[in-house]
Amino acid sequence: MSLNRALGLWLVSMAALFSGGALVMPQAASGAEAQAASQPATPDAATLLFEEPQLANTKAGQTLTYRYARKVANPELGATFEDRVVLMIETSAGGGDARDVKVDFFSPERHHAAGPFEGVTTNPMLLLFLENHLGDLSGRLKGNPRYFKTAIRTALRDAATVTATDLTVGGQTVRGWRVAVSPFKGDPNAARMRGLETLVYTFEVSPEVPGQIVRLAIKAEAPGGALWEESIGYDPTGH
Length: 239
Fold this sequence. Notes:
Mean pLDDT: 85
Number of helices: 5
Largest sheet: 9 strands, antiparallel
Low-confidence stretches: 1-12, 19-30
Shape: globular
Order of helices and strands: HHHEEEEHHEEEEE
Radius of gyration: 18 Å
């Protein structure tokens, strides 16, 4: 199997793992047709994040730049730094909404191997961000990354809140969605997570932004302040 084929299958399997499969969209309540017509239906979190054709509003030759930031209160949880990730969009042989995507993940001193991805319709930035985070999290806590991954998938399916909201991108306001979830709240292994059981995952997306991903943020609060802060956000300036 070629490397590109293997990476493509990995992306598909990761999306399936996080989304948990196709879910039924909520229906407007009977008798509320007029109100439903004036407001967008609230989508399911997993469908919104992992099944929408997020790359449909991109074109060949376009680059999407994301600014990454990581800040931790305890040095044992890793380093504090800022960096960037760049996605390079190319035409896919599959046509339609599919794209080929090359990835430049972090600057040379922290560079990660990632991609390329062929024939994808969802923005791989979300899965790349989560995979990087989960590798870091499992390494710091000496846990199985699949355990954390399953907790996030289950929470997105059963406990996420999805809110229509205004988002700010490059000083401009766009309409979008904010998904928030606390996957480790009440976790039976919370005592072993060194305060990171309070992690809250926030995902902001908008169809008005190329690639749809606006900002992804992960934060754990502690009595003395934030214990862990990690985010990546779309930078329309490309810097």
